[in-house]
Design goal:
14 helices; Alpha-Beta Plaits; globular; DNA polymerase, domain 1; 12 strands; 4-stranded antiparallel sheet; 3 domains; Dna Ligase, domain 1; 37% helix; alpha+beta
């Protein structure tokens, strides 16, 4: 009986620029950047072709800086309608191979090919060649036994690479990498890990003092990073087209670009409280909690965290999404022309996927890292709240918050 999984992560190379080149082949092999341009060159580089990158041009760099590095760059105004149409072509093509496809963002997707009967490496080459020949879209592909390793593998050879990452090869290919290159470790988490002497992914995998990591990052986030560093990731490919997938979500679109962290986190608290209450009212818990962000430069991301034990707890949902927000947002600064940078947020959303009815959920797995007294307190509190609601009505009282007491706060930057 086949028990191992085969997951592919397909990552489009320089996607926005690739779409423009697909529309205009004369741009091929030229230094192209996608950015809002104006006479003062205040725009931010959204994507740069590899030819542009060879001059040192990077994403989020100002256009004026890019021109200082290469006077011959070609600036193209972003066309999100065009990019969305190419993203849909990409997605529809993958669906011809399997229905188990998860779009992680506009330019990347996961595929679960565990049931595929043929040679997966040959299929990966076919996918890469078809996307390039039929749609003129280059991509890199990672092949691994789980989503995390597949994502890490797809980053190892760009452009047009295909990388297989097996668990038995982690010491050779994954563990020597700097901790900053690990998916889920961003600009705020890396310094915390450095302060603990964790410089590489291998250092994290070999960490003996888990409690110190938990104090730095919080239990859920610390557990996830430590497991992934050891090649463990049980999260499933969420195929949005499947009738069996059910999710609860809520989002808010701001009427202006938001760069203040406090506004985002206050909004996040309201959204997580709403999602938690809806889960509780439907008698559901979720194994996957995620955050959706839409930036002022039209970029959109969906990042999620899978759990060993499902939850509908507002605090758990908030801490997971807060950690994701911390890694993908940094308060911007006004530039000399009073323009905002590309980190500004226009929409923030919270979603809960892979939900189960409470009667269906398995017995909670308690580990040596769990605080038993804390679990007992939460269970007792839920019993009290349920009793009050049963006697006086559902709207009488509910778990919610705008600020947490000090003893529930985690360490933050």
């Amino acid at each position: 009986m086949k028990t191992s999984r085969i997951i592919l992560h397909i990552d489009m190379n320089c996607f926005f620029a690739s779409c423009e080149i697909a529309e205009d082949p004369d741009l091929l092999k030229k230094p192209v950047i996608i950015a809002h341009d104006d006479p003062f060159q205040r725009g931010i580089v959204l994507t740069a072709s590899y030819e542009a990158r060879s001059f040192g041009i990077k994403t989020t760099m100002q256009v004026r800086e890019a021109f200082q590095l290469c006077k011959d760059i070609i600036v193209i105004e972003p066309d999100m309608e065009l990019y969305s149409s190419y993203s849909d072509k990409f997605y529809q093509y993958l669906l011809t191979i399997t229905k188990k496809v998860e779009m992680a963002s506009i330019d990347e997707a996961y595929m679960d090919l565990s049931d595929y009967q043929g040679d997966v490496v040959t299929l990966a080459h076919q996918i890469q060649e078809t996307l390039l020949k039929e749609h003129r879209l280059p991509c890199s592909i990672g092949i691994a036994p789980n989503k995390f390793l597949a994502k890490m593998a797809s980053d190892m050879q760009k452009p047009l690479g295909i990388t297989i990452l097996r668990k038995r090869e982690l010491n050779k290919y994954l563990w020597p990498l700097p901790i900053e290159e690990m998916q889920g470790v961003g600009k705020k988490t890396a310094p915390k890990l450095h302060s603990m002497g964790i410089k590489t992914i291998g250092d994290l995998a070999d960490l003996q003092n888990f409690n110190s990591l938990k104090q730095k990052l919080g239990h859920i986030y610390a557990t996830s990073l430590h497991q992934r560093a050891n090649g463990i990731d049980d999260s499933e490919v969420d195929s949005s087209g499947s009738d069996t997938v059910f999710s609860v979500s809520n989002s808010h679109t701001f009427d202006r670009n938001i760069y203040e962290e406090k506004i985002l986190k206050d909004t996040l608290k309201i959204l997580t409280n709403s999602v938690a209450n809806r889960l509780q009212k439907k008698n559901l818990k979720a194994y996957t909690i995620g955050l959706q962000l839409k930036y002022a430069n039209f970029r959109q991301i969906n990042r999620s965290q899978s759990l060993e034990n499902p939850t509908n707890d507002d605090y758990d949902i908030y801490k997971i999404t807060e950690a994701i927000l911390d890694e993908n947002f940094e308060e911007g600064l006004y530039d000399v022309d009073n323009q905002r940078d590309s980190t500004c947020i226009r929409l923030i959303g919270v979603f809960a996927n892979r939900v189960v009815e409470l009667k269906e959920q398995p017995i909670q797995q308690i580990t040596i890292f769990d605080n038993l007294s804390e679990l007992e307190k939460k269970a007792e509190l839920k019993k009290i709240l349920d009793g009050i609601k049963q006697k006086f009505g559902d709207t009488t009282i509910s778990q919610g918050y705008y600020e947490y007491p000090d003893n529930r706060k985690q360490n933050t930057d």
